[in-house]
């Protein structure tokens, strides 16, 4: 049954409703703990997920729980923060109300931080058959399919049929595609080769398809060249200046006319922001993001803000928009919390948000990473170590840091993580599964 | 496509086909590594699962990967052992052939070790609506439902409706039911109470229903009394001399006439052995197990053996059958490997199997456990420590031991494991899920 305001008490405090517990939303809520606001955080999951390491979950290097953190645990000691697990259906801006699948919730201030999702550029056949990597659930889905398919390959005598199960096509040469291709190559050499001695590892092909003429187009030329060299040495087949134009679940069709037989196309070719009903008018046509001013306030709205990947803020340094990376979301969350506490409560205008670019990194494999820092680029062993430490310390919670560190050290020494288990949740009966899978 | 003999080469060695990679089957296969036999191990999963700790996975204390081990990794250095992930459909004893969902496989010797599954005693309504704990997938299913339901409870103002989501009924007072009830009580006090401050923890009821007049009927009176005292002190509501006669998904109906409103009935009231097509005649009617002689050979069959829970061997000490516990399976696996290598290859008769009872234990919670050893019984803190060490050292793999130890130490210090994440695998699209869920 649905009750008013999602069963959250009405107090004298201003209510800030935060949609989404990604980097931006969780960070904002954390900084609003024990302040004069009532904060309601809504997410479809009961955990915050650390997206930069999804690919390691997909490649059986980490368990999902190592890079996820229960949202409620963050707010154990904060009486002013409420969490509700719900799906956002619509925003009624005239009534200052959010409509969810569990009922309505009124707000004084609304902050939208629902991130970005996979962009299939309108190709519904590709969408239906390919995998993407925008949630822990999807990452687990990729992992399970990889190992199911290798088991399946054991029953196939002819190469043509086996190819379906053992070849991979990764679409998109950005950081996600590059990191996935590198990790997949290591999985092939260190794990698959030992687990499946009946299989010739040279049969396993990993294709990385990039529409432009270089990998990591958002990084420096130097980083691109280095990443390409690394991946070639690791046996990844780079397909530049081409795109996957169609995929029917059996063949991936390239624009150049080639086709690749595979059961697994992993789509990392682009993102788009979800369009929330009731907020359509606030989106900018070109970027597909919600246009905000320099204080993250949505243009033409008085009490709605947007931060993170979904926020389209144009500034002097970033005349288009900010890059859709974790650091922007984190910094916007920090900024907006301060803005609310210091300026809004005291009716002061406040300073504009300025993004501090701390650099961009991508790891390709053991001892191999590339980085562009504001003043210089680097690559190799030291870069890889820096990448490891930065990601370790960015994780929420001491337990997660320790578990990830243990896993990385174990894998480093043993070349093997033992996580290649095809474990799927079982529901009590088939008719329940649709309800549980919401 | 299906190929003869599941794509396994025909050699001069005798082929032993092992059905099931539980304690019995995996142990047998391990001891047959690098022997003169060709060994084919078949399981529906690509991992061995450590059943005694399922309840800790269900109660968010451990990750599934911590108590599962990839089967292929066990046989990295054994060229004579083949693994195939497949479902057993039927055995054609006249043709010495096993029929699987992936094709047929001929055998010289067949060893059946397919364990036991949940027994709902023919009540299909209970089976459809309740949870059981016989696989890691089911354990994850329970965990996710618990936390989904608590999130759902946040939207319910009236106790009557909330009760559906926050009350638990555990059926069966054996070790599984007792351990689950204890762990659930700790979850309620240490995690739920902190995560859901809006909820009154006294509202959360945990019922443990046992048809007999005492818990742990397989153990000593002393152990039963102690377990009952522990559980009562932990707030578990014991319902003795009663049974759940029906469950419609909303109310659990007790034989005494009472009913309990709950979304979660966890059924741990009994097990039965799966009946394999083609082997029906070898089952004993009373026990429902496959009758074997003192060397684990199936009576009336010349080249078929059965070990573990499914084997019904009557002996002087155990005139009925052996208890269906891990130790029997492990010892039978050890015994049969020796019997095959030492006696069968040399055509010697061999000694009969004798089960060495090392004792029975059950843990109820922090510092609380009971144990019956062959010569004495004990309970309390020391028993709990012994339980921890025995289970730790029984796990396969150094990594799993370290991870479980880390988790237990972390939980011991922090009263919190951070594993309450409702993570469900996502398939690429709905029409694929049935295929993937096989």
End-to-end CA span of chain A: 17 Å
Q: Give the percentage of residues in beta strands of chain A.
A: 15-25%
Number of separate domains of chain A = 2
Averaged pLDDT of chain A: 93
Describe this entry's structure for a reader.
Two copies of one chain form a homodimer. Chain A has helices at 23-31, 54-58, 71-74, 124-129, 136-153, 159-166, 175-195, 221-233, 326-344, 381-394, 398-414, 430-436; strands spanning 15-19, 38-43, 47-49, 68-70, 81-85, 88-92, 97-100, 103-106, 109-112, 117-118, 168-171, 206-210, 237-240, 244-247, 251-254, 259-261, 264-267, 271-272, 290-291, 304-306, 311-312, 360-365, 368-372, 377-379. Chain A has 438 residues and is α/β, with parallel strands linked by helices. The first copy, chain A, has two domains: 4-118 and 272-344, FAD/NAD(P)-binding domain (3-Layer(bba) Sandwich), CATH 3.50.50.60; 124-269, FAD/NAD(P)-binding domain (3-Layer(bba) Sandwich), CATH 3.50.50. Chain A has a five-stranded parallel beta sheet with strand order 5-2-1-9-20, covered by helices on one side. In chain A, β7 and β8 form a beta hairpin. Chain A is globular. The relative contact order of chain A is 0.15. The model of chain A is unreliable at 430-438 (pLDDT under 50). The interface between A and B is large, with 74 and 75 residues.
């Amino acid at each position: 049954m649905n009750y008013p305001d999602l069963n959250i008490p009405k107090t004298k405090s201003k209510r800030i409703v935060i949609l989404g517990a990604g980097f931006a939303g969780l960070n904002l809520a954390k900084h609003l703990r024990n302040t004069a606001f009532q904060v309601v955080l809504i997410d479809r999951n009961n955990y915050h997920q650390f997206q930069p390491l999804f690919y390691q979950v997909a490649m059986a290097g980490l368990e999902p729980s190592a890079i996820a953190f229960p949202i409620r645990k963050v707010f154990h000691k904060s009486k002013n923060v409420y969490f509700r697990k719900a799906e956002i259906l619509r925003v009624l801006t005239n009534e200052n109300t959010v409509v969810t699948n569990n009922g309505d919730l009124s707000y004084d201030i609304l902050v939208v931080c629902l991130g970005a999702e996979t962009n299939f550029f309108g190709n519904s056949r590709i969408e239906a058959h390919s995998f993407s990597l925008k949630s822990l659930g999807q990452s687990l889905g990729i992992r399970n399919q990889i190992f199911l398919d290798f088991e399946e390959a054991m029953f196939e005598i002819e190469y043509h049929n086996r190819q379906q199960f053992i070849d991979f096509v990764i679409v998109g040469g950005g950081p996600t595609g590059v990191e996935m291709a590198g990790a997949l190559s290591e999985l092939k050499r260190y794990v698959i080769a030992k687990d499946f001695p009946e299989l010739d590892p040279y049969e396993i092909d990993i294709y990385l398809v990039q529409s432009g003429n270089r990998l990591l187009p958002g990084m420096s030329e130097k980083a691109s060249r280095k990443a390409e060299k690394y991946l070639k040495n690791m046996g990844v087949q780079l397909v530049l200046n081409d795109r996957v134009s169609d995929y029917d679940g059996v063949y991936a069709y390239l624009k150049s006319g080639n086709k690749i037989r595979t059961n697994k196309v992993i789509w990392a070719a682009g993102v788009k922001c979800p369009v929330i009903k009731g907020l359509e008018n606030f989106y900018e046509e070109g970027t597909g993001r919600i246009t905000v001013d320099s204080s993250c306030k949505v243009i033409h709205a008085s009490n709605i803000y947007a931060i993170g990947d979904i926020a389209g803020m144009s500034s002097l340094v970033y005349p288009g928009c900010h890059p859709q990376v974790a650091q922007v979301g984190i910094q916007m969350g920090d900024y907006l919390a301060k803005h609310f506490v210091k300026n809004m409560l005291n009716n002061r205008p406040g300073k504009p948000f300025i993004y501090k670019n701390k650099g961009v990194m991508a790891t390709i494999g053991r001892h191999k990473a590339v980085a562009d820092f504001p003043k210089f680029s680097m690559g190799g062993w030291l870069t890889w170590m820096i990448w490891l430490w930065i990601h370790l310390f960015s994780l929420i919670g001491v337990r997660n840091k320790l578990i990830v560190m243990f896993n990385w050290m174990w894998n480093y020494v043993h070349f093997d993580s033992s996580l290649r288990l095809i474990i799927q949740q079982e529901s009590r009966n088939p008719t329940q599964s649709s309800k549980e899978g919401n």
